[in-house]
Amino acid sequence: MDQAEQLRNIIKRQNQPDGMSRVITVTSGKGGVGKSNVSVNLAINLSRQGKRVVILDADFGLANVEVMLGIRPKYNMADLMFRGRELQDIITKGPENIGFISGGSGIQELTNVTKSQITYLTQKLYELDSLADIIIIDTGAGITDSVLEFVTASSEVLLVATPEPTSITDAYALLKILNRKLEFSSNQTAIKMLANRVDSKEAGKQLYTKLNLVVERFLTIKMEFLGSIPQDSNVTRAVMQQKPYSILYPNAPSSRAVYEIANILCDNVSEKTQPSVGIAGLFSNLLRIKSKR
């Protein structure tokens, strides 16, 4: 029995469907589209609506989320998996009471864990399911093995794109690969697109329509439109001050837009295309994908 099968069996024995957190994986086809900024400010606004939110930074080697939150975590996922730290040790408190977990190298080392470590990790991840209503996974930028593994393992994906031609092209390239991978996967993924740095709501919808026409013609996956965030100079100012723009400039166009998007996500929580498998279920899928490589 391989490690992925061991983890799936553990999850089946400990299945707690009513206690599963909702996991939203935020990704993009290329860097520089504001993905991490979306993750951070979406988390802020979901927390303001009474949700317990944790961000898991899966962008290995970079610290974009840490910089935007203005925090420096002492521990990361590897400390939980291999160095005996408890889950509470690796959760750093951020603004508006959101939690933050640095992925570090821990997620990349999943394929090296022993059976006992799998059991321990699964138990701890179930604990996280009970501590958070929503877990936002901020993936790395671009089309890497790590990004593809996370996206393929997820039940809910938020794809961030901008009007730049390269962003649209790379977003489609990501969707094309995801479409191929999901054809051979038992996992079903709900994909939502967010148009970032657009001139208007109409421009955001046009961006979605343009991309979705190609998706519907050539791919079998489905993609829905979540909303758009306008081009806003306050976003750059907030990054320079290492603070979320939703906190520094709550009345800015970008802040109002991400507030609306958070509302939409909260309103359709009971209408998601696919039920959440929780963070432990996602890692079970992730390990299964890794074991097939």
From TrEMBL:
<dbReference type="GO" id="GO:0005524">
    <property type="term" value="F:ATP binding"/>
</dbReference>
<dbReference type="InterPro" id="IPR033875">
    <property type="entry name" value="FlhG"/>
</dbReference>
<protein>
    <submittedName>
        <fullName>Site-determining protein</fullName>
    </submittedName>
</protein>
<dbReference type="GO" id="GO:0005829">
    <property type="term" value="C:cytosol"/>
</dbReference>
<dbReference type="GO" id="GO:0009898">
    <property type="term" value="C:cytoplasmic side of plasma membrane"/>
</dbReference>
<dbReference type="InterPro" id="IPR027417">
    <property type="entry name" value="P-loop_NTPase"/>
</dbReference>
<dbReference type="InterPro" id="IPR033756">
    <property type="entry name" value="YlxH/NBP35"/>
</dbReference>
<dbReference type="InterPro" id="IPR025501">
    <property type="entry name" value="MinD_FleN"/>
</dbReference>
<dbReference type="InterPro" id="IPR050625">
    <property type="entry name" value="ParA/MinD_ATPase"/>
</dbReference>
<dbReference type="GO" id="GO:0051782">
    <property type="term" value="P:negative regulation of cell division"/>
</dbReference>
<dbReference type="Pfam" id="PF10609">
    <property type="entry name" value="ParA"/>
</dbReference>
<dbReference type="GO" id="GO:0016887">
    <property type="term" value="F:ATP hydrolysis activity"/>
</dbReference>
